[in-house]
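Minutes, project check-in
Item: structure for the 585-residue chain
Input as provided by the requester:
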Amino acid sequence: MPHSLVRAILLGVLSVTAALVLAACGSSGDDGGSAATVDSGKDGRRGGTLTLLTSQDVANLDPGITYSSLDLNMLAATQRTLYKYAPDDPSNIQPDLAAGPPQVSPDGRTLTVRIRRAVRFGPPVNREVTARDVKYAIERGFNPNVANPYAPQYYGTVVGADRASGGPIAGIETPDDHTLVFRLTRPTASLLAEATILPLSAPVPQEYARPLDARSPSDYGNHVVSSGPYMLEADRDGRVLGTGYGPGRSLRLVRNPNWEASTDERPAYLDAIEWRIGGRPGVSGRQVLDGEGMILGDTPPPALVKRAYQDARDQIVFSPGAGNRYVTLNTAIPPFDDENVRKAVAAALDREQMRRIRGGEVVGDVASHFLYPGVLGFEEAGGQEGTGVDFLAEPRGDMELAREYMRRAGYADGRYDGDETVQVVGLAGAPDDANAQIVDQTLQELGFDTNLRIVDASVYYSRFCALPRARVHVCPNVGWIRDFADPQTVLNLPFNGAYIFPENSPNISQLDDPAINRAMARGELTVGTDERASAWAEIDRMVIATAAAVPWLWDKQPNLSAEDVRCVPQLWNQGHCDFSYTSIE
């Protein structure tokens, strides 16, 4: 599966479920925005055990394999990647294992990173981390027994990476114990530096992990070694399975005894973090609201969002920058191979109603383009106001303009009179099914005969929306989560013609516009923050102009915590409470 499609699925199924119940809670204008919190995590209280209640198990404990949002939350506390985001700044990378800013050569083909001294692995390795440990970590991502899902995308331009199979990569050099040099075939060093916030750059001790990596799949996840302030509880041989982790039941993080606060900006207030896995979100959510020292790892159900918003406002945080949502229109098949027909649908859709069904202002802003708040290029693409296209000017829909676009497409009375029955596939469960029904009704008002099918999240992408041969015309419940703050991670896979695959295709609209493809190729090689912001903002404008998809929400993720917990959200990662900054007050 293409790596970012995993993140798209996560946004699709970890939906904000504050449906109509919030419409009467002030979400239409009183102070909805006040629930969105940005917290640096400073001056927290030290000590205590935080309990996370979640229905979800971890996908994988191996930092070289996992890619799920919940797992990234755990790894942010147990592993030190080269760079990281501060909890209140999801846009600018900061040194973590690195000793200073990344050094990018003028031609963009060399990236040099200095490694901090005195960072030590936890038990049972118990030695200083070196640059060779990061080199091995990245190389093992290309090992078929590890098969990291995003290594080819972000590390693929490193010299020799295209031939790597877990062995040495010539383009990663370690001239000394504390220096890493990446030599690239293309000028993508700035993008690579950003990508090191993902856990593939967390150090892995080769002498310890190599025998485990020889197995298929690698067994390193069951013996994973920490470099961060916390570690999975393990036996004396380093085995976490059956000690710190019981699949489907529990997980326990304890302090890494080799962690030195002087080498790390994380405050790491908590003594331990315990996961209780398998409960139902409704039951667990009530326990959190009424309990002590607890947070909810799931999206809370509507009744609890309403209760917290009305009666326990300090116990719910709506984190901005949690992704975007859009309706895809299949540009490869009639009738949506006609740009004017697509623009008609975009003009007619009541995006405000789509948002209101999910809960109104508190759960997000009405989207007007694909780059969302916190992503580089958002302001340059138009910010909150959008790119200026007329078919997205009215959030509540403009049926008169929609009919004008239908007439431009050759339908004289402003309504579709062709022979196609439009196949619409929506996602089951409230409020996603209601959003799909709004889109379906909009299509009918424009004269389309439709066939609406509501399916489970487990097959929504794999059997329908990401499968071109299924010939689905409209997918109303698509979303995307960035990998990091660079705009390429938001726009490239969903709208580049190079990523139309026979199966698991991230380009669900099947948009294959040569001008956009060329602009993305140039944008990938663009060096410099301002330059990349401008380049990808222009690409955002170009994609919007095609109406291949209709953006309708920039998400804010709700998080519940007990009254005594100060939840500090990871704004870069779905708004989960960051274990290294959250405290029990």
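Outcome recorded: Residues 57-271 form a domain with the D-Maltodextrin-Binding Protein; domain 2 fold (CATH 3.40.190.10).
No further action items on this chain.
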